[in-house]
Each structure stands twice: as C-alpha cells, then as structure tokens.
Amino acid sequence: MKRKATKMVRITLDEALQYRMSPEEKARLDAMTDDDIDYSDIPDQGDRTDWIRPGSILGKGKEIVTLPFDSDVLAFFRKKSREYSTLMNAVLREYVLAQSAKTAQIKGSLVGAGVAARKKAS
After folding, report:
1. What pLDDT is recorded for position 49?
2. 77: exposed, middle or buried (C-beta count within 10 Å: 0-12, 13-18, 19+)?
3. Which terminus of the chain has fewer CB atoms gathered within 10 Å of its CB, N or C?
4. 35-77: per-residue pLDDT in tens?
5. How far apart are CA 34 and CA 48, in angstroms?
6. pTM confidence score
7. Is residue 107 in some structural domain?
8. What span, in angstroms and rounded, lies between the C-alpha atoms of 87 and 99?
9. Do 13 and 20 touch, CB atoms closer than 8 A?
C-alpha cells in the first residue's frame, strides 16, 4: 500500500527533550511584551473583527442544545454511529419533512374542498 505524504515528523522522547527551552530562553520569553512580538509572518485578516475566537463553524441554521433523551434511545443511536448526533438530526429532519408534507397535503385538500364548495354555491 502506498503511504500518503505528510508533513508530520516523528521524533523520540529523547529528541523532544532536546527542544525544551533553556532557563535563559524561558526568562527572555516571560519578559516579552505584546509589542515585542513579530507579527509580520501572519497573513492579513482584513476587517475580520466580527469574531471573538476561531472555532468550529456550525452548519447553516444549526444550534447547540442540551436535550434529555431516554437512555435506551441514546444507547441505540450511539451503537449505530460514532456520529450519533448527526444521525439523530437526520432522523428528526425526516420526521419534520414527513410532517410538513402531511400538513401541506391537509392544507391542499382543505383548499380544494373550499374551491369545490364555492363552485357548488355559485
């Protein structure tokens, strides 16, 4: 099997310990102020001041909520998928779509009945 090229570098613990800061380097870092930091290698963010901290971006219209579920129901979804919350969302979406279709069908039949009643009255 062909290995995928990555930029990851593996080192041993002994090698990692060589990269520890010396007491002099740590003291110099602790003494630095924000003005001493060189930001010249950071790409320009433009007017991106609309966020406080970067993080995972939720899909359009998604919210994080806390809901109580019966333990057996939660266990069922956890057993089905590691991404059980996505699966639960898909099941709920199907329910919403089915209910929306049923509501539209009922409204359509009521509108149709109203038109027929008006035709009959005229």
Report:
1. 56
2. middle
3. N
4. 998 888 887 766 655 555 444 445 567 788 899 999 999 999 9
5. 20
6. 0.40
7. yes
8. 19
9. no
pLDDT score at 74: 94
CA distance readout (Å), 29 to 23, 39, 108, 121: 10, 15, 71, 88
What average pLDDT does range 6-19 have in this prediction?
A: 80
The answer to whether the CB of 100 falls within 8 A of the CB of 107 is: no
| Residues ≥6 apart with Cβ < 8 Å to 82 | none
Backbone φ, ψ for residue 94 (5° rounding): -60, -40
Asked if residue 111 belongs to a domain, the reply is yes
Which residues constitute the domain of residue 96? 64-122
Please give the Cα distance from 67 to 117 (Å, whole number): 46
Residue 2 forms part of a structural domain: no
* DSSP letters for 2-43: PPPP-------HHHHHHTSPPHHHHHHHHH--GGGS--TTSP
In whole angstroms, what is the distance from residue 45 CA to residue 67 CA?
37
